[in-house]
């Protein structure tokens, strides 16, 4: 059939049972001449099944199909991917099927490349998800470290404001308390300070030992705490010196508290001997004075209390 040989591509003509009637030169070059009369011989097993179960039913129902993906088989047994169009037409009253094949090696390569690209994309996505998880866990760890550092900083700040022996606040904390008060009250407010020094403390150490001296300091701290209201600050100011900051207390109120302190420590004894303290009292008005002046005034009053025979409170007027 000369006109079939002139067509640009492999063409096969069969009857409606797949018996070969003609094939052109391009088809023979591609799949060989064949040895049997059925077209099945040109297809590998998988494509034969596909032809029987899908292509033929489609063709017989619709009279044609297009772009079905099949595989032909070369004479050497090699699979050749082809796109296939087929149509039933009548020639002299007899139906015959024309099969057109388009070699689709490129499509197969594109599909393989596409598949590979998809696998790579999936792998990248998995790696990204893994990296994301690692990042999240690193963030969580970082947040934990931040919390730990914050808590350590708070502990350090606490330690730097605490006297290790008595667990009272120290003199650094006193300035913080007074400064805070100065920043928060009106000019008319009045705060007072008691500067308390244990009388003849050196003798306690000398006679009963340093450990006993320490016990007295700890006991003293407890009694001072018991003498004040919440909101007042008891601090260990130095060796055997304590201070009580009384925000919003004037000189009279502070003197009352000093008396309470003397009462509280009456029961504090070493070897049946009572311990006494001397107290200097001074008051502060936020508009005029600051902590150094307050401490200087209380210290002056304390010195006077000692000079006047100890075991007493003296007010700085
Ligand atoms: N056990 C003990 N003693 C301390 C501590 N800090 C300071 N001291 C002692 O406290 C004593 C203070 O002595 P002084 O300054 O002479 O005062 P004092 O003996 O109380 O005399 P007056 O204040 O004049 O009544 C010294 O012997 C210090 O060694 C401490 O933490 N523990």
UniProtKB/TrEMBL annotation:
GO terms for cellular component: plasma membrane. It is found in: Cell inner membrane. Residues 107-134 form a coiled coil. It comes from the Bacteria. SUPFAM superfamilies: Nucleotide cyclase, PYP-like sensor domain (PAS domain). InterPro entries: Diguanylate_Cyclase, GGDEF_dom, Nucleotide_cyclase, PAS, PAS-like_dom_sf, Rev_trsase/Diguanyl_cyclase. Keywords: Coiled coil, Nucleotidyltransferase, Transferase. It catalyses: 2 GTP = 3',3'-c-di-GMP + 2 diphosphate. Pfam families: GGDEF (PF00990). Its cofactor is Mg(2+). Residues 189-317 form the GGDEF domain. GO terms for biological process: cell adhesion involved in single-species biofilm formation; negative regulation of bacterial-type flagellum-dependent cell motility. Its EC number is 2.7.7.65. GO terms for molecular function: diguanylate cyclase activity. This is diguanylate cyclase. It comes from Ectopseudomonas alcaliphila. The lineage of its organism: Bacteria, Pseudomonadati, Pseudomonadota, Gammaproteobacteria, Pseudomonadales.
